[in-house]
Amino acid sequence: MKAVRVNEKFDMEIVDICEPVIENDDEVKIKVKATGICGSDIGIFNGTNPMVTYPRIIGHEMSGEVVDVGESISHVKKGDRVVVDPVTESGMSPEAIIGRSNVSNDLKVRGVHLDGFMQEYIISKKDRVYKLEGLDYNTMALIEPFTIGANANWRAETSPRDNVFVNGAGTIGQTVLRTAILRGARVYVSDIDQEKLEIASDMGAYETIDMSGKDTVKEALKANPYGYDVVIDCVCSTDSFSDCIQITAPAARVISLGFSNDFSKIKQKWITSKELDIRGSRLSNKKFSEVIRAIEDKRINTEKIITHTYPIEKVKDAFELSLDGSRKSGKILITF
Fold first, then answer.
1. What backbone phi and psi angles, to 5 degrees, belong to 286?
2. Percent of the chain with pLDDT over 90
3. Which residues pair with 12 in a beta bridge?
């Protein structure tokens, strides 16, 4: 069967590997239908993802169809449409015991530490498999990105009383926006791309802020001079994190989604004088069920995120588009 493997930096190929088979009674075999290209996949390809080990079959966003199940499986059957949580951990770590399994020391992520979903068939443990109804396979591949947005807002404790600033209106910015709206917050969104801002406005942003060629801090505070109760950084650069801390209201929460190894310049008084909470949000802490329910119930709008689809045979073209700053794209899917 075909799989997309990154052997090392800038070395990606479609390889033929053996089709997996069920070996344990708690496993599910799934035919992959669609996988999303994420920023972390781009980082694996260009060598900037600090978490990956090579060689690696990439992909952690997926949708698929069950083709076989182990003897102990009862919640899904052959023919069911499913998605898979890419995060694996034992559940026995101190972090898992306090409800923070997504940062467990024994955590591994499919497509990063373990081979991922960009292959024709996969095997998954049953507790990572979630059944869906009434959604097409492409939309289902957005479930995992929406769990990232849901986790960021969970970490921020976003509530109806909050003015939320979402820095960046790309795919993750869109999921953060829409899950913040689900929690009842008033959401401001910034970007340098007017089309992305128009989508954010269509999806319910209270105000959009065009940062093209402008000072982020000044423009953000012009829109809301008091500052923001929650600031979620979806740009994830050294400068953006510093900007996000400066536009806060007193007692605000700042959420970082970035994995840069570079330093940000931050004055201690920015944090201490306002008694800010600076929090990371990594992956998703068992947010699949709540996101699936919200999307199935149409409480989350998934429109205008996917812009391109490519068959697996053209995966290199898809990555070229992702890396080409002169060509606009949103979420790109690889289909099987």
1. 55, 50
2. 95
3. 6
